[in-house]
């Protein structure tokens, strides 16, 4: 009992700290956005520096004392901190580090006329990035047992810091993109446009303060390409610190992660089509980026945007069709559902659905804007179709992945070679189930159905005869599922690459920008898109898991 | 297994419907706010009418068919839909109905020059309000067993509809309060002010369209007083439909709710002080409202506002002190924690913390604004102190309530009268535990500690000797806890009454309004305050439960 009580206090205390730090952060960020005269961005950065230093100190303390003590970390959660998440964190951390170095170099040129805090902040952030990436790489799987309350509070502080950093970055970018120079007419709202606006803002309106050396403008240009990675980094670190917080004090019951072999040779159609689609997507993406870079006439740009829209529409439609096939197979498939609680799986599903909201919001905003303005022109029509198909694809894919994650993994049926007596073959079903009983985590024929034995009679009754014929069907279904998974995996990779490497078709034509005004639309895209990118990466990992278990 | 699978599909399908309807609603509300030229409020209302009709039809279907079928509702969840929630829903529903009648009467006067949808919407909403209040009053405790997937989808549709209605109301009010007439100078930003702005807007700028009869202005004035209740109503209905959704298909294991008697005579200091405080608060609140109504000179208004601030500061400070005492007693109290999952309790705690975020945000925004502008004048100083103490009080009260809800209820110790033999008294402890075993839900001496037997050695070791002396101490502790609960209960009631009946000190002096600009501040207050009001009502109910179990 005293242990339980301590856990409760630790949860409540860390939750209170989290709530207070985050809400104070929200208030400060809002204040510096809406009243930059009184609370300047330097004031906000002082607050951030304090937060970053506190979090860094705690992480160092954890690594030097807590993690090294005996009995501190007895268990590792095999599901937490998977390699794709840690690799992504390291990659985005590296790119954020480069961004910070550019920032330091740039603001050093303004030291004679601007606050020194603007240099101090990226320096502190660089140290923080380094320490946090190291910390999360090596300790993401820890189930801490010692000093649990301090660890809980520290992890919640880490989570709060990352969320505030994310919020600051998103707000800053939305504000940067807001000040549109007047000389451009509304029709030409292109990507180059907002990039130029961004650079104009970062140089303090060009008159008040001059950079003391000439390389400044190059540094500024680099921001534009690097800040999305910094936003991603904060999201990744937030997810990982939340999982670590959930794992504090947890005793993992299955230390041996069930090993499932990965055969790529089982399938061929899915991966081949997927790779073809990804390569085609990559090719058009490169052409699109190059064409938009050139700052040529409107007609050529429109053609590039159209090509990008068509390609995306095709990709999303093909993925929708294959996901629908996969969902139908799941409906036919009578595998047992996984029973029992699994916090990591619940978190996986929660993160998947929450991250998909970002893309949902962007698509619905597009649909409303295009429909309301009458969808004139082929670009608007394509945009509308793309947004609609994206919604369909996201919904189906969420269904497919969640269904897949909740199924018992398939077990190789014992090879039927020995018997020739027809009477024995009759009994094969029972034998199979007998042999199954020896395997490690058998699917129980009647899993505890969570107190649902009530009167809800069978919308889909279980198959009457689990015969050899049925076993053959299963293999057919498994193959379709694996093909679908492989195809979707490649589709999600290409849909991740495009926005992550700078495609912003949302700003390439003016319908939404004119409809919602620039500020509102920039805010929606800047908040929604990083979640969308996170969603694609997360889907890839989840689809890989579904591939392995089906 | 097929039943389990159906549940999963039902969840996913209803979740998908919810997500899509809500996000479409967000997009439409944003569009009609940011671009009212293309998407007028009439367009939005057509969408709302469709949603309301669908939801109403489903609720009627449920009441006529599903709820009447045999075996449809075998169990009732005793914790769901408590009487305070249903009574609140009925009260707010009634007031919303009156608001709708006023709206119908008002817009009927504009029929010759405005869309008929503006009359149709309140008519449909009135029908919806009636049906939904009836539905929730009688079916809030249902654990539906028949047609579970349809019921899940219907409940998620209900939740989505209520959330969109809430969003629309909040946005409308923020927009109404945005258009401030220019003739007022910035110093006089008072409540009367925003009320006048609201009425000005509701009459279409006075020139375009004239009401065909003279009573219109009275109807419009009534909006101002009634719309907060409508916002509350939507929040209440959302919470209840979410609980119903969670309960679909659930088999409640404890049908007999453990009856605990309510003795008010156990305590005296807490309730008496609480009532005195509530009456004092009520008196100053009435004086404040009357003084602000008068539209007199600035000095008198400032005095009324100051009085309101002082009273609130005193209430919140007293509550903080008593909550701190209560938390300290909980730390000393070594009662067992409740083990086992209880979805209603988890939801209670979640709603409590989530609702408190609204007040947290308002307070932090106030603190940032006042500190940044230097906190000049006694009004600003008082406002700052009030905001700070509110944060302290909210944090402590959340701790106290969550701790209290997770404790095993106390059991009356068997009266010690029969034995006089000293050897027998030695054995009393064991006898007590023997007798306890006969009671219905005994506190297990070693509850399953959720796999936490690890090496986290005892921050607070259990008491070594559970002697009669200790039993006496428990009684002393229980009394303190009950006094604290009773006092906090009265405090929360008065803190509920003030904002629910129209106190808006946030707009009574200009610091925040000038700092954040009117739009931003109105949005923060209009979103945060209904949650704050909900929080106070919810706290009263939870404190009553804590009172009973301690």
Q: Can you give a write-up of this model?
A:
Chain A is mostly helical and 550 residues long. Chain A folds into two domains: 2-247, no CATH class; 269-412 and 468-549, no CATH class. In chain A, 70% of the residues lie in helices and 1% in strands. Chain A has helices spanning 2-34, 41-64, 83-108, 117-139, 148-176, 191-202, 216-247, 269-293, 298-332, 343-372, 377-405, 422-426, 428-438, 468-500, 511-516, 518-549, and strands at 73-76, 142-144. The interface between A and B is large, with 75 and 75 residues.
Based on secondary structure, the structural category of chain A is mainly alpha
Shape of chain A: globular
Sheet with the most strands: spatial strand order of chain A: 1-2
Count of helix runs of chain A: 16
- The percent range for helix content of chain A is over 70%
* Oligomer description: homodimer
Low-confidence stretches of chain A: 179-195, 414-473
Q: What do the pLDDT scores of chain A average to? A: 77
Measured by residues with Cβ under 8 Å of the partner chain's Cβ, the largest interface is: A-B, 75 and 75 residues
| H-E string of chain A | HHEHHEHHHHHHHHHHHH
Please give the largest β-sheet of chain A.
Answer: 2 strands, antiparallel
Instruction: Work out the count of structural domains of chain A.
Output: 2
Share in β-strands of chain A: under 5%
Q: What's this, in brief?
A:
The structure is a homodimer of 550-residue chains. Helix content of chain A is 70%, strand content 1%. Chain A is mainly alpha-helical.
């Amino acid at each position: 009992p005293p242990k339980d009580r301590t856990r409760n206090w630790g949860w409540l205390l860390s939750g209170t700290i989290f709530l207070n730090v985050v809400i104070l952060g929200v208030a400060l960020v809002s204040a510096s956005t809406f009243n930059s005269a009184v609370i300047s961005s330097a004031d906000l950065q002082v607050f951030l520096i304090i937060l970053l230093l506190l979090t860094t100190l705690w992480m160092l303390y954890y690594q030097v004392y807590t993690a090294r003590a005996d009995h501190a970390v007895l268990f590792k959660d095999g599901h937490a901190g998977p390699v794709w998440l840690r690799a992504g964190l390291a990659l985005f951390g590296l790119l954020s580090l480069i961004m910070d170095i550019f920032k330091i170099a740039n603001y050093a040129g303004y030291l004679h006329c601007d606050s020194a805090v603007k240099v101090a902040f990226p320096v502190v952030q660089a140290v923080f990035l380094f320490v946090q990436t190291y910390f999360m790489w090596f300790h993401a799987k820890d189930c801490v047992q010692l000093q649990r309350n301090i660890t809980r509070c520290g992890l919640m502080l880490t989570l709060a810091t990352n969320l505030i950093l994310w919020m600051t970055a998103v707000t800053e970018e939305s504000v940067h993109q807001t000040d549109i120079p007047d000389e451009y007419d509304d029709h030409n709202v292109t990507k180059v446009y907002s990039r130029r606006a961004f650079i104009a803002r970062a140089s303090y309106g060009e008159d008040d303060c001059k950079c003391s050396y000439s390389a400044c403008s190059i540094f500024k240009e680099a921001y534009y390409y690097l800040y999305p990675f910094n936003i991603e980094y904060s999201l990744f670190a937030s997810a990982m610190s939340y999982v670590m917080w959930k794992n504090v004090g947890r005793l993992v019951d299955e230390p041996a992660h069930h090993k499932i072999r990965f055969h790529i040779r089982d399938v061929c159609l899915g991966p081949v089509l997927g790779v073809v689609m990804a390569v085609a997507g990559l090719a058009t993406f490169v052409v699109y980026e190059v064409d938009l870079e050139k700052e040529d006439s409107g007609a050529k740009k429109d053609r590039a945007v159209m090509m990008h829209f068509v390609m995306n529409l095709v990709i999303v439609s093909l993925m929708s069709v294959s996901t629908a096939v996969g969902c139908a197979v799941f409906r036919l498939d009578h595998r047992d559902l996984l029973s029992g609680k699994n916090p990591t799986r619940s978190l996986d599903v929660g993160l998947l659905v929450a991250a998909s909201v970002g893309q949902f919001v962007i698509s619905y905003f597009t649909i409303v804007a295009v429909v309301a303005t009458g969808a004139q022109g082929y670009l608007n029509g394509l945009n509308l179709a793309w947004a609609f198909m994206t919604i369909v694809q996201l919904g189906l894919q969420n269904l497919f992945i969640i269904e897949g994650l909740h199924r018992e993994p398939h077990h190789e049926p014992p090879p039927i070679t020995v018997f020739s007596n027809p009477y024995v073959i009759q009994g094969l079903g029972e034998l199979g189930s007998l042999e199954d009983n020896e395997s490690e985590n058998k699917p129980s024929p009647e899993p505890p159905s969570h107190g649902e034995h009530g009167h809800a009679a069978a919308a889909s009754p279980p198959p009457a005869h689990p015969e050899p014929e049925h076993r053959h069907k299963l293999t057919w279904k498994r193959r379709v599922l694996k093909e679908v998974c492989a195809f979707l995996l490649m589709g999600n990779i290409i849909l991740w690459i495009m926005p992550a490497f700078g495609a912003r078709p949302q700003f390439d034509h003016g319908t939404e920008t004119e409809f919602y005004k620039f500020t509102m639309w920039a805010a929606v895209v800047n908040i929604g898109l990083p979640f969308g990118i996170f969603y694609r990466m997360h889907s890839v990992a989840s689809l890989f898991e579904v591939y392995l278990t089906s």
